[in-house]
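Good morning,

Attaching, inline, the backbone tokens for the sequence recovery test we're adding to the shared suite. The designed sequence is right after.
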């Protein structure tokens, strides 16, 4: 496979148009470095260790559901325990789901508050790094929790770190359209269009190819770092006899990695500065006003918002599958921390392979980003179907041996699913408003996951965990029809027109 980074100039800036910058190889590496820094938080913490640690801490301080005078007994299969949070008694398995739901609900507020501001000056990079350091510090603090009675504090740390992680990744995604426009291959194609050597369709094809390459590389780098840190965390857990605190140290190590590697991004990632912000703008209200005006003009971006609705549903379904799978492994099959860590390593490793596998399939078959995303989504929906077949008692995550191939299959879809989704959205984003629009994407991506955990948490409260898969199955199937309905070519043209017609000056801001 041809390396799209070959031939990247090693000068700070050159031009093909008057002010057209061209990315250097080091600048792209600076951007990719943040995926290596932050993605392990998702792979190691949110998707793997945090649900286990929160459930273990809650169970360690919890009581048996049927007799609250007795401490929780975690040595029996399908144990049911509750823990008191304020005046409420919550199922210990649902506690982490509720923590995630709270964090992603608050993410929506943060995303909108800083989104449009990130499009002005160098705030996009500044905000990204500020959230990176906040999130990493609160992740490191997990090492300070030494008692199960502090389960509530662990929940607070999860909420803060997940808000910061989500906000930083919204800004990270917002770099994709600008990086693609300034990539040497895209700049060269644009020059060829001006000279009549290539058509505008050729230019869009090159930009789409580069966008998918950048996104796929970032996913692979992130998952690669996540797998490495998971292996180290597994070694720590094994050396400390699989204690809950050993998993907390793995979480803290991930936070330390996030903190340190972010300095490489600080030094080398380009700022991609936007238009200066008017001096009289209210910094606390500007983003909300800007987004409000955009939503009132949503009819001008029908394709973009159709896709956002589809992705809201798809993202929620996929994230819910992850949480349910972890709880099934722990409570139904009584997998110990070693087996859970093996599964946690298999999924991102398969995701790394799957990212490049689907990129290869797309290029080999000449598929568009939309066609590829649709195919991945259909394949993804097989996972909850398989789990629900298990009610038959014949197969479908009935036997422990089924867990590993199911995890590998899931991983092969996961990385590419995320990569192609953000590239498709990037193509529908108005120029100069990337942070604003990716804040909306963030709500449908990271912040959409409040709904799934909330509903499935209620479903499994007093029922078999397997029943929870009905909800994500519906959430994976319904949006497929919306994706087919999206006209990408029209959406790209609408986005270009929107960026010209809705500057701050024209909108009275």
């Amino acid at each position: 496979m041809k390396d799209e980074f070959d031939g990247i100039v090693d000068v700070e800036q050159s031009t093909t148009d008057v002010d057209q910058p061209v990315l250097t190889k080091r600048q792209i590496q600076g951007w990719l470095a943040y995926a290596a820094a932050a993605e392990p938080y998702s792979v190691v913490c949110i998707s793997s260790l945090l649900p286990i640690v929160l459930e273990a801490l809650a169970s360690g301080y919890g009581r048996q559901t049927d007799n609250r005078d007795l401490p929780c007994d975690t040595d029996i299969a399908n144990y049911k325990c509750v823990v008191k949070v304020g005046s409420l008694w919550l199922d210990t398995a649902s506690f982490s789901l509720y923590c995630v739901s709270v964090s992603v609900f608050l993410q929506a507020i943060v995303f909108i508050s800083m989104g449009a501001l990130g499009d002005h000056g160098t705030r996009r990079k500044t905000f990204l790094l500020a959230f990176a350091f906040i999130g990493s510090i609160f992740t490191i603090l997990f090492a300070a929790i030494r008692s199960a009675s502090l389960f509530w504090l662990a929940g607070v740390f999860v909420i803060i770190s997940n808000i910061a992680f989500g906000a930083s990744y919204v800004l990270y995604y917002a770099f994709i359209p600008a990086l693609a426009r300034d990539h040497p291959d895209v700049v060269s194609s644009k020059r060829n269009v001006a000279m009549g050597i290539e058509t505008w369709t050729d230019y869009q094809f090159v930009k789409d190819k580069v966008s998918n390459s950048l996104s796929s590389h970032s996913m692979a780098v992130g998952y690669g770092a996540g797998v490495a840190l998971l292996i180290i965390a597994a070694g720590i857990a094994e050396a400390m006899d699989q204690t809950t605190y050993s998993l907390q140290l793995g979480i803290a190590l991930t936070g330390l990695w996030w903190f340190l590697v972010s300095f490489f991004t600080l030094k080398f990632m380009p700022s991609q500065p936007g238009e200066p912000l008017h001096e009289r703008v209210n910094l606390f209200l500007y983003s909300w006003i800007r987004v409000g005006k955009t939503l009132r003009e949503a009819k001008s971006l029908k394709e973009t918002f159709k896709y956002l609705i589809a992705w809201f549903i798809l993202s929620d379904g996929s994230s819910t599958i992850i949480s349910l799978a972890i709880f099934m492994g722990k409570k139904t099959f009584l997998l110990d921390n070693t087996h859970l860590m093996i599964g946690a390593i298999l999924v991102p490793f398969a995701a790394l392979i799957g990212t490049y596998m689907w990129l290869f399939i797309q290029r080999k078959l000449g598929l568009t980003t939309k066609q590829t995303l649709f195919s991945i989504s259909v394949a993804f929906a097989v996972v909850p179907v398989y789990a629900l077949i298990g009610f038959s008692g014949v197969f479908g995550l009935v036997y422990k041996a089924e867990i590993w191939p199911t995890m590998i299959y899931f991983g092969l879809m996961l990385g590419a699913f995320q990569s192609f989704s953000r590239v498709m959205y990037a193509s529908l984003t108005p120029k100069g408003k990337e942070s604003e629009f990716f804040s909306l994407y963030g709500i449908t991506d990271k912040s959409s996951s409040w709904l799934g955990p909330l509903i499935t948490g209620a479903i499994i409260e007093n029922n078999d965990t397997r029943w929870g898969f009905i909800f994500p199955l519906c959430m994976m199937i319904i949006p497929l029809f919306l994706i087919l309905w999206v006209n990408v070519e029209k959406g790209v043209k609408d986005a270009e027109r929107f960026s010209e017609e809705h500057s701050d000056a024209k909108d009275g801001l």
